[in-house]
Amino acid sequence: MKKHLRLLSAQLLAGALVLTALSGPARAETSDSDPQLAAEWQTAWDTYKFYKDVPPAAGSGRSRAKDSISITIDAPLKTVFSAYSNVNNHLGMHSFLKRVVTHKTWTKYGKRNVNFTAVEEIPYEGSTVVSNTHAQQRIDLDGFYYETDTWSVPNVVTHQKIVFKKLTTGKTQVTEYLTFDADTALIDFVVAGGVSSHEATQAGLKKAIEDGDI
């Protein structure tokens, strides 16, 4: 499994580095300023329209795959929902995630909307690749769920719905429904890496919430 994930990282990062030379959203051994990230976020939003949950067209060279993961957290629903849906609490839950830059927040029709960029620093062959994932999160404050759409090099789009359910034991079940769109040659690697990253973050959030750290 570890060998497979190393291969995954190499494949994805090689693709990211090639595309970086053309498009510039990710850079090695440097980090963009907040205004630069905001401009990159807007470009990704306008160009790739990653907020549109439309399956790749047949013959486009892109594919879609879905998965879901679930975890039970020993804490009340409202506590879990508040802590888990705050993307700033995800910092430190995965070794690659180093910074979250929020560009805009607003509440409308019972949903809190957050435009942000997650900055990851990924070790690769003796150097560090800085990968920027541009995202919009929509938190349903009464329905106890949130949705997040993201875009990152090399043109990887994810659609996520995270649902929180109160259990009779007083615990809370969190289920993440994940949809990945990527080039067909990369889709299996994208899914494996994406699911692994989300599982690591889930486990980190569970521990932090149960320990009362967030």
CATH homology superfamily: START domain
CATH architecture field: 2-Layer Sandwich
CATH class reads Alpha Beta
State the shape: globular
Q: Report the end-to-end length measured between terminal Cα atoms.
A: 31 Å
Helix content: 25-40%
* Strand count: 8
Spans of 5+ residues with little confidence (pLDDT < 50)?
1-29
Average per-residue pLDDT, rounded, comes to 87
Number of helices: 4
How many structural domains?
Answer: 1
Order of helices and strands: HEHEHEEEEEEH
Strand percent estimate: 35-45%
CATH fold-level name: Alpha-D-Glucose-1,6-Bisphosphate, Chain A, domain 4
Structural class: alpha+beta
* Major sheet description: 8 strands, antiparallel
Instruction: Characterize the quaternary organization of these chains.
Output: single chain
Backbone CA Rg: 17 Å
Briefly, what is this?
The protein has 214 residues and is an alpha+beta fold. The protein has helices spanning 2-23, 34-48, 77-84, 187-210; strands at residues 27-28, 62-73, 97-108, 111-124, 127-140, 145-152, 156-166, 172-183. The chain is built from 4 helices and 8 strands, in the order αβαβαββββββα.
Draw up the topology in text:
Blueprint: H1 2-23, E1 27-28, H2 34-48, E2 62-73, H3 77-84, E3 97-108, E4 111-124, E5 127-140, E6 145-152, E7 156-166, E8 172-183, H4 187-210
Antiparallel strand pairs: 1-5, 2-8, 3-4, 4-5, 5-6, 6-7, 7-8
